[in-house]
Write a structure and sequence with these properties.
The protein is an alpha/beta fold. It is built from four helices and five strands, in the order βαβαβαββα. The longest helix has 16 residues.
Length: about 110
């Protein structure tokens, strides 16, 4: 799983050739820990079509502020350098797949 920070966000997300889904999360967030295994599992299912990455909002609060992250977990989908949609809250795997498909057109 790709771990993001202020140092690699531009290269890995903004300049990515394929869409990227970024999990904005924190260690203390129980719903974040609940969806982590689902997010990991889906990263394999969408391999080559959608890049999966995580960013800890406590360690990279400047990026959380830049993208107006107000609640976590927040899964933001980026394509061609801009945010095209987001999913807020912990969802079950089947619903998360539907939402990802709707946003990323997969």
């Amino acid at each position: 799983m790709l771990q993001l920070s202020g140092e690699n966000f531009e290269k890995e997300v903004v300049e990515s050739k394929i869409p990227v889904i970024v999990d904005f999360w924190a260690e203390w967030c129980a719903p974040c820990r609940m969806i982590a295994p689902v997010f990991e599992k889906l990263s394999f299912a969408y391999s080559g079509k959608l890049k999966f990455a995580k960013i800890n909002v406590d360690e990279s609060h400047e990026l959380a502020e830049k993208y107006s992250i107000r609640a976590i977990p927040c899964l933001a989908v980026f394509s061609k350098g801009r945010e095209i949609g987001r999913i807020v809250g912990a969802l079950q795997e089947d619903m998360l797949k539907v939402k990802i498909g709707e946003i990323a057109k997969l």
